[in-house]
Amino acid sequence: MEEKLKYKDITEKIIGASFEVHSFLGNGFQEVIYQRALAWEMTQKGLVFAREIEQEIYYKALPEPIGKRRADFVVEGKVLVELKAVIQLDDVHLAQALNYLKAYKLEVGLLINFGSKSLTFKRLVS
């Protein structure tokens, strides 16, 4: 029996848009180039998103934040998307994306890498 993935319709559109970007641009560009192209592709697919939303990071009971981070995209207010343009994804990239999911209080995320010959991605669930 096939398990129903949360926000599957949204993540499929994001992944499809990412493949379109990688197919056209290939690898070798800076992350920001892929981010801009993906924003255009997601708009073409009718996805609503926010780009580089700053999120404060809190520690335990401290009343003030200890820092701020920015995820590349939050799509439809439900899916976090973190982009990389590296030869291969490492554990540190996965840890960063999982931390962003927690900080943004989201359940589903995509870690997408445009830096390898073939597009790679990981679906994340918190």
Estimate what percentage of residues fall within beta strands: 25-35%
Count of individual helical segments: 3
Rg calculated over all Cα atoms: 15 Å
- List the secondary-structure elements in sequence, H or E: HHEEEEEHEE
Total tally of structural domains: 1
CATH topology: Lambda Exonuclease, Chain A
Low-confidence stretches: none
- Coarse morphology: globular
Name of the CATH architecture? Alpha-Beta Complex
Total number of beta strands: 7
Counting copies of identical and different chains, the oligomeric state is: single chain
- Average pLDDT rating: 94
Portion of residues in helices? 25-40%
What is the CATH class name?
Alpha Beta
Q: Please outline the major beta sheet.
A: 5 strands, mixed
Task: Please report the distance between the alpha carbons of the first and last residues.
Answer: 23 Å
Structural class: alpha+beta
Strand order of the largest sheet: 1-4-5-6-7
Provide a descriptive summary of the structure in words:
The chain is α+β, with helices and mostly antiparallel strands. It has one domain (28-125): Lambda Exonuclease, Chain A. Helices cover 37% and strands 25% of the residues. The protein has helices spanning 8-25, 31-44, 91-104, and strands spanning 49-51, 54-57, 67-70, 73-75, 79-84, 108-113, 120-125. The strands form two sheets. The chain has a five-stranded mixed β-sheet, sandwiched between helices. Strands 2-3 form a two-stranded antiparallel sheet. A hairpin with a 6-residue loop joins strand 6 and strand 7 (120-125). The protein is globular. It starts with 7 loop residues before the first helix and ends with a strand.
